[in-house]
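Weekly sync, protein design subgroup
Attendees: M.S., D.O., the rotation student, P.L. (late)

Item 1: inverse folding check
M.S. brought a backbone from last month's batch and wanted to see whether the design step gives back something sensible before we order anything. D.O. pointed out we never logged the input encoding, so this time it goes straight into the notes. Structure tokens as presented (119 positions):
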């Protein structure tokens, strides 16, 4: 995924946290097809150098995108694109649903039954 390495800079005047801006740049690259499922991302330190941010900022952005379901971390193999933004959005909403259900006393199997009844 070298196309994400194009000249992109973080807007230091934007109140958005740097890690969110980095995540946004990677999310955009995935959405525009510059990075396809299965493709590996450059190492975090390389992305950090290009974006002129701390490596920990990039790592935080990568973890956020992993939690959204867009990226996959594999020991010894780096970080790769796991899914499209659409799938990531569905996974995010599913996590929210499960958390809401648990807070309201529903078991996971009950949530599954509810979702099935809607489909």
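Designed sequence read out in the meeting:
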């Amino acid at each position: 995924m070298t196309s994400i390495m194009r000249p992109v800079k973080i807007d230091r005047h934007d109140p958005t946290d740097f890690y969110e801006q980095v995540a946004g740049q990677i999310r955009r690259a995935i959405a525009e097809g510059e990075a396809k499922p299965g493709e590996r991302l450059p190492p975090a330190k390389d992305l950090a150098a290009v974006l002129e941010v701390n490596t920990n900022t990039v790592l935080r952005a990568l973890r956020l995108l992993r939690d959204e379901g867009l990226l996959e971390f594999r020991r010894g193999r780096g970080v790769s694109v796991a899914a499209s933004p659409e799938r990531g959005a569905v996974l995010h909403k599913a996590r929210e649903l499960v958390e809401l259900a648990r807070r309201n006393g529903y078991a996971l199997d009950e949530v599954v039954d509810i979702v099935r009844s809607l489909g």
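Discussion: Residues 2-82 form a domain with the Arc Repressor Mutant, subunit A fold (CATH 1.10.10.10). The chain has a mean pLDDT of 86.
Action: P.L. to compare against the previous round before Friday.
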